[in-house]
């Protein structure tokens, strides 16, 4: 059990380090793990410029696949924020390079890449084989995610950090979302938990993100390629290969 | 068990421990560039920072105050100079992270129109790296072997830790994944060391065979692949010789220390490593024997144990 004063001291310590790090546009970002509330930290880049690309250690094709997966996860229906292994592998066949020519990525290569993404801690793979975003991704790519996906990315009503796993208000139109650990903190001593935004009864059982053991969506909804046609609508791609095969316009 | 040898600096004059006073937490101030630095012109000046500057603005004000002799650091706006320094620092960090060498031309690319400012920017970036990260850029040498010399001006650098060893080995850093590989590397470096800098591939293989490392179920798996990785990371170098090997089918190959090993592993660490491996069974005068085998004439009288 960490003493309050130690926590403050640690926060001061990190802030001091950030003073120097901010000088070179780096920063320690802190958050709590979405699955278990454990405090985590990442040294992140606060400026996503060209020079930083050197650090990724992935080839352009590998990065392209990564972006596709990220896209599929963020755009998943019903705020599931995950995709199945089938869908993930299916995405490998849909890669295109800048000239819109297909990029070759075999199933085996895709599987190895997925293992690498897991080992490098960009994605998490659940027991049922569903891929979702790791804390590293949420911390390091926070700016990228917010800028690219706007409202699709939700924030926890309590801690204001990005949330991809947790509880939501039972009222469909209400935007209130809480991490599991934030919900425990917020409702700790309340007998009748109420939504912080709309004050309806809070169920704790209406979830977003993947709950353990459930299967992930195998339909992949993609964000429209804004650079190509500016349309805001998404388009669906059925990973089971039922024949509907729309390309990005 | 050998200590973690990575990125140890030979000169111990960085007195981190004796930093006085509780208020000045950032390690600003009076630090001399080590003499084995690349010796760029005008960089011998010490930077004395005003310790009362606690916030990051102190970097900006100092850029305007400081001039380095011989280069016109003042014909560029201070913010622009700062930006260049920041970019070089980030370049060093990110390049190091992906285990590549930082080439002089990469730095020049960052400087673009301001390549005249290479030296002051480099020097400032060094200070920033030491101050914030406890690391410094060190030039990679080629040790003057003919046929391998790099062209003039094609310098490259890598980052090296300058924190004292005690901080790294006290269980704070998790070396887990790399410990084995570093152990293997130390063994190979030691073998090369006591052969005065080069070992024939056949000799190396017979040693590894003795250590049961060539077998299929060895903990290192494919040793050849490990060696390739160590070569790629510039810890080892492989040289083809003029004559054929014993099979007569390919040129004889010898292994030497790579540029990175020269930067990160001081020779005294190798001596200590060998001594540790012997442990209690070390014969008398082991150190002297090691140095003699390595062809090192010690300047100080060596203690006979």
Automatic annotation (TrEMBL), chain A:
Location of this chain's protein in the cell: Nucleus
Keyword DNA damage (UniProt): yes
Molecular-function GO term, any one: ubiquitin protein ligase activity
PROSITE patterns: ZF_RING_2 (PS50089)
CDD domains with a match to the protein in the record: RING-CH-C4HC3_NSE1
Subunit structure: Component of the Smc5-Smc6 complex.
Region (Disordered): 213-249
Family listed: Belongs to the NSE1 family.
InterPro entries: Nse1, Nse1_RING_C4HC3-type, WH-like_DNA-bd_sf, Znf_RING, Znf_RING/FYVE/PHD
EC number, as in UniProt: 2.3.2.27
Keywords, in A-Z order: DNA damage, DNA recombination, DNA repair, Metal-binding, Nucleus, Transferase, Ubl conjugation pathway, Zinc, Zinc-finger
Catalytic activities: S-ubiquitinyl-[E2 ubiquitin-conjugating enzyme]-L-cysteine + [acceptor protein]-L-lysine = [E2 ubiquitin-conjugating enzyme]-L-cysteine + N(6)-ubiquitinyl-[acceptor protein]-L-lysine
Pfam families referenced in this protein's UniProt entry, alphabetically: SMC_Nse1 (PF07574), zf-RING-like (PF08746)
A Gene Ontology biological process term: double-strand break repair via homologous recombination
Record has DNA damage as a keyword: yes
Entry GO terms, CC: nucleus; Smc5-Smc6 complex
Domain (RING-type) ranges: 156-199
Functional summary from the UniProt entry: Acts in a DNA repair pathway for removal of UV-induced DNA damage that is distinct from classical nucleotide excision repair and in repair of ionizing radiation damage. Functions in homologous recombination repair of DNA double strand breaks and in recovery of stalled replication forks.
Top class in the EC scheme: transferase
Protein name listed in UniProt: Non-structural maintenance of chromosomes element 1 homolog
Organism whose genome encodes this protein: Entomortierella chlamydospora
TrEMBL record, chain B:
Location of region: Disordered: 1-75
CC annotations in GO: nucleus
Signal peptide (UniProt feature, chain positions): none
Start and end residues of each MAGE domain: 81-281
Pfam families registered for this protein in UniProt: MAGE (PF01454)
GO biological process, one term: DNA repair
Segments of skewed composition (Polar residues): 33-44, 59-72
Name of this chain's protein: Melanoma-associated antigen F1
Biological source species: Entomortierella chlamydospora
Gene: MAGEF1
């Amino acid at each position: 059990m960490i003493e309050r004063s130690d926590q403050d001291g640690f926060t001061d310590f990190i802030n001091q380090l950030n003073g120097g790090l901010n000088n070179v546009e780096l920063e320690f970002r802190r958050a709590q793990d979405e699955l278990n509330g454990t405090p985590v930290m990442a040294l992140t880049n606060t400026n996503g410029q060209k020079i930083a690309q050197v650090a990724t250690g992935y080839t352009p094709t590998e990065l392209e696949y990564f972006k596709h997966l990220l896209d599929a996860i963020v755009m998943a229906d019903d705020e599931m924020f995950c995709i199945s292994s089938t869908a993930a592998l299916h995405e490998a066949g849909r890669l295109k390079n800048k000239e819109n020519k297909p990029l070759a990525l075999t199933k085996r290569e895709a599987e190895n890449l997925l293992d690498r993404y897991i080992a490098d801690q960009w994605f998490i793979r659940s027991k049922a084989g569903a891929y979702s975003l790791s804390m590293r991704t949420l911390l390091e790519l926070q700016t990228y995610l917010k800028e690219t996906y706007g409202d699709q990315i939700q924030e926890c009503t309590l801690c204001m950090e990005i949330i991809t796993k947790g509880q939501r208000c039972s009222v469909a139109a209400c935007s209130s979302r809480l991490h599991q650990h934030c919900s425990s903190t917020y409702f700790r001593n309340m007998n009748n938990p109420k939504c912080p935004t709309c004050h309806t009864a809070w169920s704790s059982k209406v979830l977003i993100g993947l709950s353990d053991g459930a299967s992930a969506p195998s339909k992949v909804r993609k964000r429209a390629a804004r650079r190509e046609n500016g349309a805001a609508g998404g388009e669906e791609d059925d990973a089971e290969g039922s024949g509907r095969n729309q390309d990005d316009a | 068990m050998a200590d973690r040898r990575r990125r140890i600096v030979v000169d111990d004059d960085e007195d981190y421990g004796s930093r006085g006073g509780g208020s000045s937490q950032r390690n600003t101030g009076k630090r001399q560039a080590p003499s084995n630095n690349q010796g760029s012109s005008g960089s011998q000046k010490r930077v004395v920072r005003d310790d009362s500057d606690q916030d990051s603005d102190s970097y900006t004000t100092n850029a305007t105050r400081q001039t380095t002799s011989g280069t016109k650091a003042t014909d560029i706006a201070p913010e622009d100079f700062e930006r260049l320094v920041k970019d070089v620092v980030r370049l060093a960090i990110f390049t190091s992270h992906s285990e590549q060498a930082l080439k002089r031309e990469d730095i020049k690319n960052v400087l673009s129109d301001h390549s005249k400012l290479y030296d002051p920017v480099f020097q400032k970036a060094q200070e920033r790296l030491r101050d914030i990260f406890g690391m410094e850029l060190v030039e990679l040498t080629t040790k003057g072997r003919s046929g391998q010399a790099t062209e003039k001006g094609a310098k490259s650098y890598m980052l090296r830790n300058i924190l004292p060893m005690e901080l790294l080995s006290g269980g704070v850093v998790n070396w887990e994944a790399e410990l084995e590989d570093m152990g293997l590397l130390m063994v190979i470096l030691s073998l090369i060391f006591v052969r005065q800098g080069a070992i024939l591939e056949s000799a190396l293989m017979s040693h590894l065979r003795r250590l049961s490392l060539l077998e299929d179920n060895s903990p290192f798996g494919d040793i050849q692949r490990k060696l390739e990785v160590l070569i790629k990371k510039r810890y080892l170098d492989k040289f083809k010789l003029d004559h054929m090997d014993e099979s007569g089918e390919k040129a004889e190959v010898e292994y030497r220390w790579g540029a990175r090993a020269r930067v990160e592993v001081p020779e005294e660490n190798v001596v200590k490593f060998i001594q540790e491996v012997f442990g209690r069974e070390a014969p008398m005068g082991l150190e002297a024997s090691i140095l003699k085998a390595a062809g090192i004439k010690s300047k100080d009288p060596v203690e006979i144990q």
